[in-house]
Structures are given as structure tokens and as C-alpha cells.
């Protein structure tokens, strides 16, 4: 593309990053993100969601949590999808308290949980050591607190 005088935009970069993340090609993802920034193309929420998905797929949850913080620092508002991916990753890795903390944080930022988050937490309530805490958060989410 670039060799033919066509400059990729954020949509092109985001689609490529998403594809590479799904294939778990981390080195290529890092190179492409670097190239994107070098070209002056700013990532958007779609780009960040693709990166989040890649981190969660590989159980790189601490890096995913760092990404969530960086998104906000860059002036973007993480969306419900972004939160749901990390909440799901936490639950799948037995990190229930972190999942619940993140769900509370999401609600405090004014985002309403979607059906996916409810399903993740319902499933977690039957698998975790403290189901009452999970049920409490689900109830608060349902009530919009």
C-alpha cells in the first residue's frame, strides 16, 4: 500500500492489528503499532479493543489492564466491549476480585454493563469461592448503582 502512494488510515491499521492479534502474532502487532504511530495515525477505541483482545487471548492480563489505563490517558473512553474482554479474562484465570473491581469501575464511569458482562459474571458466580460477592455486584449492576 505505502509503496503505491496510498497511506493507510486508522481503519486499515485497526483491521490489520485485529487480524494479527487473533493470530497471536505479538511481534508483528508491536511493529505495526509502532509504524502506525510513526506515520502519525492515532489509535482509536477500535484499535485499542483489538489490542485488548490480543492481550486477553494470551492471558497477558496485566498488560491488558495497563492498556485500559493508557486508553484513558490518551483521551479515549474505553467502551463496554473493552471492559468485558478484560473482565472475562480475569474470570477465566480465577481473578474474580479483579473482575468485580473492574465491573464496579466501569459502572462508576457511567457505562452500563451489557448482556455479555452479565453472562460472564453469572457463570463466574457458580465457579468462584465467593459467589455472594459476585451476586451482589450483579444485583448492583441490574439496579444501575
UniProtKB/TrEMBL annotation:
Keyword Transmembrane helix: no
Domain of life: Eukaryota
PPR repeat copies, ranges: 9-43, 44-78, 79-113
Classification via PANTHER family: MITOCHONDRIAL GROUP I INTRON SPLICING FACTOR CCM1, TETRATRICOPEPTIDE REPEAT (TPR)-LIKE SUPERFAMILY PROTEIN
Gene3D superfamilies: Tetratricopeptide repeat domain (1.25.40.10)
Keyword Repeat: yes
Entry keywords, A to Z: Repeat, Transit peptide
PROSITE patterns: PPR (PS51375)
Name of this protein: Pentatricopeptide repeat-containing protein
Family: Belongs to the PPR family. P subfamily.
Coiled-coil segments: none
Amino acid at each position: 500500500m505505502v509503496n503505491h502512494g496510498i497511506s493507510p488510515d486508522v481503519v486499515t491499521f485497526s483491521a490489520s492489528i485485529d487480524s494479527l492479534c487473533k493470530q497471536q502474532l505479538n511481534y508483528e502487532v508491536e511493529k505495526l503499532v509502532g509504524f502506525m504511530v510513526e506515520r502519525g495515525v492515532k489509535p482509536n477505541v477500535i484499535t485499542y479493543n483489538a489490542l485488548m483482545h490480543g492481550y486477553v487471548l494470551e492471558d497477558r492480563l496485566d498488560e491488558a489492564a495497563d492498556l485500559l489505563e493508557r486508553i484513558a490517558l490518551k483521551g479515549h473512553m474505553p467502551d463496554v466491549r473493552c471492559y468485558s474482554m478484560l473482565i472475562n479474562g480475569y474470570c477465566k484465570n480465577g481473578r474474580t476480585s479483579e473482575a468485580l473491581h473492574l465491573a464496579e469501575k466501569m459502572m462508576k464511569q457511567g457505562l452500563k454493563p451489557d448482556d455479555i458482562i452479565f453472562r460472564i459474571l453469572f457463570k463466574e458466580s457458580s465457579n468462584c469461592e465467593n459467589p455472594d460477592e459476585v451476586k451482589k455486584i450483579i444485583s448492583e449492576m441490574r439496579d444501575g448503582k
